[in-house]
């Protein structure tokens, strides 16, 4: 199986997936990295591991359709089987969803359906809830709404500040996502 990793920013989850593949914890290969953000640090990570990457913001394209066409032809070229979103900050729309049905997954830093959206860790922190966590789910047309594959809970201690909560969430993500990717891919292999 060939994975495309989509990210808009730092890419720490992308790197944890690459590491899991190198260490044999995910039985797949990284076909490529895609980013919509020319300044994203994830591009440096792709270079470091010599992974083919493509950077294209919708603003560089005449239309959203054109942007999606370019992404799809890059994925085609790289013979991608699965799309793994890891901090990708845009909605995946119909043409890509149709081309990769049930083959696109995302990680989200809350216990969905609670706290969807772009700044969930801050929202969770400000809501002063006692428990949060991480969700991995299939991607559909909505924002953080697709069928849930796995969740891991985290109890929030009263003395934690925001950076502590962020650190704890990322620690969970870096363990959980590679594990779930491997499970989902294995299940798919078994069923096909
Ligand atoms: C992660 O918290 C992920 O759950 C969310 O965006 C963040 C990306 O972090 N979707 P990184 O770029 O992988 O470091």
TrEMBL record:
Coiled coil: none annotated. CDD domains: FMT_core_GART. It comes from the Bacteria. GO terms for molecular function: phosphoribosylglycinamide formyltransferase activity. InterPro entries: Formyl_transf_N, Formyl_transf_N_sf, GART. SUPFAM superfamilies: Formyltransferase. Residues 1-181 form the Formyl transferase N-terminal domain. One of its GO terms (cellular component) is cytosol. The keyword Ligase does not apply. It catalyses: N(1)-(5-phospho-beta-D-ribosyl)glycinamide + (6R)-10-formyltetrahydrofolate = N(2)-formyl-N(1)-(5-phospho-beta-D-ribosyl)glycinamide + (6S)-5,6,7,8-tetrahydrofolate + H(+). GO terms for biological process: 'de novo' IMP biosynthetic process. N(1)-(5-phospho-beta-D-ribosyl)glycinamide binds at residues 11-13. Pathway: Purine metabolism; IMP biosynthesis via de novo pathway; N(2)-formyl-N(1)-(5-phospho-D-ribosyl)glycinamide from N(1)-(5-phospho-D-ribosyl)glycinamide (10-formyl THF route): step 1/1. (6R)-10-formyltetrahydrofolate binds at residues 64, 89-92, 106. The record marks 144 as: Raises pKa of active site His. The active site is at residue 108. Keywords: Purine biosynthesis, Transferase. Its EC number is 2.1.2.2. Belongs to the GART family. HAMAP family: PurN (MF_01930). PANTHER family: PHOSPHORIBOSYLGLYCINAMIDE FORMYLTRANSFERASE. Catalyzes the transfer of a formyl group from 10-formyltetrahydrofolate to 5-phospho-ribosyl-glycinamide (GAR), producing 5-phospho-ribosyl-N-formylglycinamide (FGAR) and tetrahydrofolate. This is Phosphoribosylglycinamide formyltransferase. It comes from Jeotgalibaca ciconiae. The gene is purN.
């Amino acid at each position: 199986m060939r994975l495309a990793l989509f990210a808009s920013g730092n890419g720490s989850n992308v790197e944890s997936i690459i590491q899991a593949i190198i260490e044999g914890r995910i039985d797949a290969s990284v076909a490529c990295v895609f980013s919509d953000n020319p300044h994203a640090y994830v591009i440096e990570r792709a270079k470091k591991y010599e992974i083919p990457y493509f950077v294209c913001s919708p603003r560089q394209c005449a239309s959203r359709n054109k942007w999606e066409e370019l992404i799809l032809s890059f994925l085609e070229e790289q013979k991608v089987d699965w799309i793994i979103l890891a901090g990708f900050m845009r909605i995946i729309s119909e043409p890509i969803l149709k081309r990769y049905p049930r083959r696109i997954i995302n990680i989200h830093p809350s216990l969905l359906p609670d706290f969807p959206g772009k700044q969930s860790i801050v929202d969770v922190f400000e809501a002063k809830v006692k428990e949060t966590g991480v969700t991995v789910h299939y991607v559909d047309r909505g924002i953080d709404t697709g069928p849930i594959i796995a969740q891991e809970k985290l109890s929030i201690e009263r003395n934690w500040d925001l950076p502590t909560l962020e650190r704890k969430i990322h620690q969970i993500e870096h363990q959980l996502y590679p594990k779930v990717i491997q499970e989902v891919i294995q299940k798919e292999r078994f069923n096909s």
